[in-house]
Amino acid sequence: MWSQLLDTILKTEFLFSVLRITAPILFAALGAVAEAKRIGRSRRKEKERQEQEHAAETERQKKLMAEQEEKVRAAAARSASPDPTAPEAPPDGEKQNL
């Protein structure tokens, strides 16, 4: 009976000494894993933010291009059809008096 108790105490002391050595290593590893997860999340969020900014910039560029195309079309339409309010052009060789 005493030998079993002594054996149990020795085993318990051995386990505690192992835990005393390994616990800081385990906690450091768990901390490193948690930090890596946090960094991964922040990188994903940053990447998503950049993708959203890129999409917004692309949309803005598309709108600008559409506006420019509309201006070009309007200018082409104005130059193709004569302006009813513009004075008639004088015949060749004559100057118009204003």
Secondary-structure element sequence?
Answer: H
The helix content, as a percent range, equals over 70%
> What is the number of helices?
1
Low-confidence stretches: none
Structural class: mainly alpha
How many strand segments?
0
Report mean pLDDT, rounded to a whole number: 86
Q: Major β-sheet, in short?
A: none
Task: Name a few traits of the molecule.
1 helix; mainly alpha; 98 residues
Can you tell me about this structure?
The structure is a single chain. With 98 residues, the chain is an all-alpha fold. Helix content is 81%, strand content 0%. The chain is built from 1 helix and no strands. It starts with a helix and ends in an 18-residue tail after the last helix.
Can you give me a brief rundown of this structure?
This protein is an all-alpha fold and 98 residues long. The chain contains 1 helix and no strands.
SSE order and pairing:
Blueprint: H1 2-80
